[in-house]
Amino acid sequence: MVYKSLLILSLLCLSQINIVKAQDEAEAESVNEDSSEETDENVEDIDTESSGGELSEEEIEEEQDLQLAAFFAELELEEYELTTSEDLYEEAEALEEVAELMDEDDTVLISDVEYTKEEIEEWAEEIAQDAEDQEKIEEEASEATEIIDEDVITSELLFEYAEELEDLFEVMDSDDVVIIDGDELTEEDLTKYIDEVIQDAEELLEDEQEAEEEKLQRIDEIVNEIEGYDDIESLNLDELENLADLYEELISIMEESVVINGEVKTEEMLQKDLNEIYENIDNLIEIQDAEAVLEDGEVPTAEDYRDLRKELKEINMNDGLVITIDGEEYDKNALHEYLGELEELAEELQVIEDFDEEVEEAEEYNNIDDMTSEDLEEYANELEDILELMNEDFPTVDISGVEYDKSELEDYIQTIEEDADVLADAEALSEAIEVAEDSFGGTSEELEAYEEALEDIVNLLEDGEEVIILGESYSKEELEAELENLDTEIDELSHEEDLEKEIADVEEILNTDDLTTSPSVYEYIQELEDVLALMEEDEEVVINDVTYNTDTLQVEIDESTLEAQELEEAEALNKIASDIEQQVASYIDEEGIIFITANELDEELDLWKLLQDELDEDETVVVNDIVYDTESLEEHISELELQLEILEDDNLVIKIENGSSSYLSEEEYEYEETLSELIESAEEVWTETIISSVDLYEYAEILEEILSMLEEDQVVVISDVEYDAESLEEEIERTIEEANSVKHIEELTSEAEDIENLIETYSIIAKAILTADDIKDEKNEWEDLEKIMELEDTVVIVDETYTYYDVAEQINILENLIEELEENYKVQIIEDGVITIVDAEVTDSGSISSEEYIDMTTNSEEYDDDLPIILSNSQSDSLVSETGYDLTQVVVESDPIAFLQLETSLQETEPVEDLMREEGIEPVEDGPAGLDYHEGDAQHIIFTTFINDKPDTGKIWTYSYERSDTIRSILEGFQRPTGVCYDVNHDFMYVVDKGFDSGEGSIYQYQMNRKDDYLDLANGVYVVVYTGTPSDCKVDPYGNLYLLDSAASSISFITYADLYFGYTNAYTTYYVQNEDNTIINSPYALDLISNEDIYFVNNNPDPTVSTLNLAEAEVDELNGETILELVEEGETVAWGVTVAGSIVYYSLDNGEVKGYNIERKTVAVYSSDFFISPKGLSYGEGKIYVADNGEGTLYSMDYKSDSKPKLILYAQGINSVFSVNRASGLVLALGLLLLIN
C-alpha cells in the first residue's frame, strides 16, 4: 500500500522495540534467509560466488544496489490504484535507475519476469511517453475542474465545465484515461459524464430562473411594504423594528438598485437608511426608559430624578420631537430647561433624604431592649450627625415621637453620653467580677489570675461600695486585705509546685533508667541538685519512698558523683578495647585470609599503648575475649613491638591462612591485593540486571589487566571458572565480540526508539496536523536507522517488524509524501486512526515564514495589489524606535503604601524633569471629564504584530486616514504586544506586552505627537507603569487606566495622577478571581463605557466559564460589586471586544464576530465563515475594525451590519488594533484627583 507507513503512524498503542541481530555466523545465515523470505520473494539472494570464484566487495555492493533498485521499481509499478502522469514518471525513473545499474549482459527479475538491460530501457521509454500524453490530459482536466471549484455552482459554470470536458475529449485517444473526482474515465466514460453534466446544467438553469422570479417578486413585496410606512420619525418602536427587518432582508437578497418612493436606492444607500432606523430604535428605547423612571407609582427619590436626567440626556432630540414625562410634554428647548430643574430638584431632595436617613438610623437604637454603653455611644454619635445637619431648613427634629430643637438636642446628647459613661463603669465592674470567679482555683497560676482580677475590681470600686464574689460580700478595704493574704499563699503554693515537679523528674529517671552508664548517672545528679536548690534548710522531701533532708540529699549526690566517675573510666577502657577489636577484624579479607602490614600493626600498637595508659594497677580489661591486667598488657605490647620491628626492617607482610602464619614481601602482598581487587571488579560486572556494551567493554579491560599480571602457568578463578593465560585471552576476545554486538543492538534500539517517540507524539494528539517539515523530521530518523542497519537486522516499531529493505521502502514512501505535500501545499491529518491529506489552511499568519505569507497572500482570490503587505518576522533584542528616537526608560521612586488604598492621592507637585511632560496636561482637582475615545471621526489606526513563538518580534504600527498610503512601524523589540490603547485627552499611548512567560510582561507609556496625517513619538522617554502578565488596557475620559492581568485573573486601575508622574505598579486591584468571585477567569480583552462600565471577555475554553461579562468601573473595595455574566459560548474562546453604540462586539476563535445588544440583551452574529482567527477589535466612526490574526489582515465592518467586511491592509501576525478618533475642543486638564497643595 502507498501509505503503509502512514497507517503505522496512526496506531495509538506503542510496543516495546525489539531488535534482533545475529550474534554469530550461523545465526546470521538464518536471519538472512528469513529476512529475504519475509521482505519480498521477488528480491533474489545475492550470489557471492561465480564461475570465476568469489565476488569482490565492490561487485557485491553493485549487485546489492541493482537488486534494491529492482525492488523499488517493482513497488512503483504495483503500488498505484489510479494512474497519473506523476505515477508514470516515477515508474519510468525507477526503471531508468535499474537500467543504469545493469551491464549489457545482465538480467533482472521484476514481477517474476526476467528482463535484459535493453528491454528495461525500451520499457522505460514507453512509460515516459505515456506520462507525457497523460500530463497533457491532466492539464486539460485541471482547467475543466477549476471552473467548478467554487463555493456556489451555477448553471453557467456547469455549461462552461461541459465545454471544457469536450475539449478534453478531443485530446484523448481510445486507450487513454483521465482522473476526475478520483475516478478513472475512458473516452466512453467521459462522453457519458459530459451528457450528465449538461443535463444537470439544464435542470439547474430552470431552478435558477424560478428562484430569480421568486426573489424579484419578494423584492417587490418588500419595497411595497417599506413604501407603506410613514416617515421614520413618526413610527413607534414596533413599527421601526419591523421596518428594520424589511431593510435587512432586502439588503441580503438584492443584486442591483431598487426604486423606493420614486428614489433609486443602492445597497450602500439602503445600509445608511438602515443605520438611521437603528439609531431611531435606540432613541425610542432611551425615551421609553426615561418615561418609565417616574411611572412606577412610587414617590420619586433623588436617585430617580438623577436616573431620569441621565436617560433624558442620552435622547437625541431632533427638531419637532416631543416626549411625555410624568404627564407633561417636552420639546427640545423645554427639555433643556427641564434638565436644569431636575438637577436642582435632585440636589434638594437628596438633602432631605440624607436628613431623614440620619433620623431613621438614630431611631433604630430606641428599639434595642437592653442597650449597652457602646449602643448609647453610637446613639449619641447618630444624634451628633443629625445636629450637624440642622439649619434653617430643619429647625426641629422628631425622634421617636419627641420633638427637639437644636439646643434641646444638644442637652439630650449630653445626657446620653453621661449615661453611657456610668453604664460603661458598671459593665467593666461586672466583667471583672466574672473574670475573678472564672479564674479562682487551686494552683498558683489560677490564684495569680484571680489576684489580677481582684486588683481590677479594687480600681473600679468607689469608697463605700461592696461587691459579691463567689457568694461573699466584699468592701474595697476587705478586698485590699484579701490581696495581701493572696500574695503569701501564692508564694507558698508556687514553691510546693516547683519542688513537686523537680522530684517528679528525679523519680522518672529512677523508674526508667538502670543508671549503668555515666551519662545517665550524671543526669540523675543534676536533677537531685535541682531539688536541693529549692529546699529550705529544715525541709524534707520523699523520693521513691525515701525521705531526705538537705544533708542526706547532699550525701546521695556525692556518692552518685563517685559512681559516675568510675563508670566514665570503665567506659573509656571499653571504647579503646572496641577500637582494637575493630582494627584486628579489618585484617581479614572475604576469603578468611589475614594480611597485616607494618602500617596496620603500628596503628594497632598505638591503640594498645593508649589502653595501657588508661589501665590502673588493680584494673583488668577484656579484648577479643582475653583478659588483660597491667602486667600481661605490657608483655603483649612488647611482642607487638618486636613483630613490628621485623616487618619494618625486612619490608614484610604477615599472612595467616588456615591457622598457618607466614611472611610475604610487600611486593608479593601488593600483587595479590591488586589481583584480588581486579577479580572482584570483574565479578561485580555480572551482578548487573542488564548487561550493556559499556559493562562488557569494562569487563574486557579488567580481564586484560588480569592477563597482564598472570605468569605462564598461573591460574585465576573468576566467577567459579578457572582461567590460565591462554583461556583468559580467548575470553577477552569473546567478550569484545559480544560487546560490539550488544553496542550495535543498542544503537539500533536507540534509533528505533527515536522513531517510536516521534510517532507517539502524533498518537497522543486528538488531531495531529503534519506539514512537510514534520514528515522530513520522521524521514531523517528513518535514515539514521538505515545507516547503522545491516542486511540481516530486523527491528520492531509499533508492533511492526522491519527488515533493512522495509526501512529503505519506508524512506522512499516518506520522500514521495514530502514531495506531494510541498508541491501541492498540503498537510497530513491523523485523527482517530484515520489518515487524510488535505489543503493546508493557515490559522495563524505568524506561524509561517515571510516568504510563505507573501505567497499565501498574493495567491488568495481576494488579493488587492493596491494594498500594502506588512511583514513582522524581524527581531530586535531591545526596545527601539523606528522613527529616529533613542529610547530611555525613566524610573520614578514612589511611596508604595499609597498604592494599597483605593483612592490614591498625588504624591508629587511637580513631575520628574526627565519625564519631559508637555504643558497643560497636569492632573487637577475635580477637573471635568474629557472626550470618550469612542467618539469622533477616525483619525489614526494603531495596531500590533508579533510572531507567537519567536521572541523580540513585537512591533507597533500606525496608519493615518489622511495618508492611507503610509504605514509606519514606530516601535520594535516587544515580545507579545497583545493590546494597545490611547489617551485621546493627554496623548499618551500604552502598549501592553504580555511577555513570553507568566509574570514577565509590562505596560509601557509613551508620549505621542498627533497631527491629522501623522502619529509618532513626541520624544524618546518611556515609563513602565505595570509589570505582571497584562493582556489589554483602556483609558477613561479622565485619563485613568484600566487593565487586565490574564495570569492573575484580575482587573486593576491606575489613576491619571500616578500615570502622569511616571510611577510603576501604582495600581489598585478592583476585581480578582477567588472563591467568592469565579466569573473573572483568564480575562484577555476589555472596553469601557466612559468610567462607568467595563465589558471584558474571558479567554478560557472551559465551558463553565462565561465569555462576555460586565463589571462596574467604580468600586469601594476589592470585588465590591457583582460581575454580570452576559454571554456564554461554551468551549469557544474569545479574543477581542469593543463597544459601539448599544452593541458590544466580540470575536471568537471559530472565526465569528458577534454583538451583544445592551438594550435588548440579545446576541446577533455579524460575521460568520469569513474571518479565520479574528482577535483585536476597535470602534471608530461607524466602523468596527477587526484584526484577523489567522489571515494576517486588517478589516473594517459597518456598524450593525452583516455585510461583507472591507479589507484595509495585510499585516503578518497582526493581533490588536485601536482606532484613535478625532474631536474638537480637547479638554487637557482632567481627572477626579486630589492635588497636593
From TrEMBL:
InterPro entries: 6-blade_b-propeller_TolB-like (IPR011042), VWF_A (IPR002035). Residues 1-22 form the signal peptide. Residues 27-48 have a biased composition (Acidic residues). Keywords: Coiled coil, Signal. SUPFAM superfamilies: YWTD domain. Residues 85-140, 194-257, 342-393, 447-657, 718-831 form a coiled coil. Residues 175-383 form the VWFA domain. Residues 27-60 are annotated as: Disordered. This is VWFA domain-containing protein. The lineage of its organism: Eukaryota, Sar, Alveolata, Ciliophora, Postciliodesmatophora.
